[in-house]
Amino acid sequence: MAGSNGKQKTVRDMILSLGLIGIAAALIYVFIPHDDSAPDIPRVDYRVELLTARRSAAYPVAAPVDLPATWKATSVRFDGANFDAWHLGFHAPDGQYVQIEQSTQKPSEFIDQATQGATATKNTQQIDGRTWTHYTGGRYDALVLPAKGSTTVVAGTGSFQQLTEMAQALRTS
Questions:
Q1: What three-state secondary structure class fits 1?
Q2: Taking CA atoms, which of 1, 26, 63, 92 is between 20 and 30 Å from 8?
Q3: Is the pLDDT assigned to residue 45 strictly greater than 80?
Q4: 3 located within any domain
Q5: Residue 14: domain span
Q6: Tally of structural domains, the chain
Q7: What is the mean pLDDT of the chain?
């Protein structure tokens, strides 16, 4: 009988240990601060890069004008050595991402990169007298505007309504 009493103590000690570990974990969870909110993405000022791109690019560089302040510019770059590639990314009011991409690169390659694999649909849309083509199926949905010597892509995780809002705000001067 002495053997069974020792097994009972071992099981009881294990349950007590697990209980103490659970209490310690709960205390740590309660007293260690944690933030479940979305991180605050810093706003970037893109004016200098825009001026540089507009002076250097072989096409009219587009950027939004009079976009509501709730749209936050989060990334910008211009690469004059690599197809005059212009990128301007925005955090939309509802947390989605919308970007403007322009380049002189071969349209099929550029569109595939900018949309991350989307393909053209038969849907088109008139925005400021220009015909934009809807692209879907990639990581991003997109509106694509081919022009002589360059291609403009407005793409992102946002809805087509948001993409349209951005495309309507675009100006080249």
A1: coil
A2: 26
A3: yes
A4: yes
A5: 1-34
A6: 2
A7: 93
CB 102 within 8 A of CB 150: yes
Question: Measured between alpha carbons, how far is 103 from 61 in angstroms, rounded to an integer?
Answer: 9
At residue 93, what are phi and psi to the nearest 5 degrees? -55, -30
> Cβ contacts of residue 147 below 8 Å, gap of 6+?
59
Asked whether the predicted pLDDT for residue 60 surpasses 60, the reply is: yes
Q: What is the pLDDT of residue 5?
A: 65
Distance, CA of 97 to CA of 126 (rounded, Å): 22
Among the listed residues 138, 142, 165, the one whose alpha carbon sits nearest the alpha carbon of residue 152: 142
**In this structure, is residue 40 part of a structural domain?**
no
Q: Pull the structure tokens for residue 16.
A: 């007590």
Q: How many CB atoms lie within 10 A of CB 88?
A: 27
Predicted pLDDT at 35 = 75
Same domain, 64 and 3: no
pLDDT in tens, 126-156: 999 999 999 999 899 999 999 999 999 999 9
Comparing CA positions, the residue from 49, 59, 107, 108 lying closest to residue 79 is: 49
pTM, to two decimals: 0.80
Task: Tell me the CA distances in angstroms from 168 to 22, 64, 72, 85, 160, one per residue in order.
Answer: 56, 8, 17, 21, 12
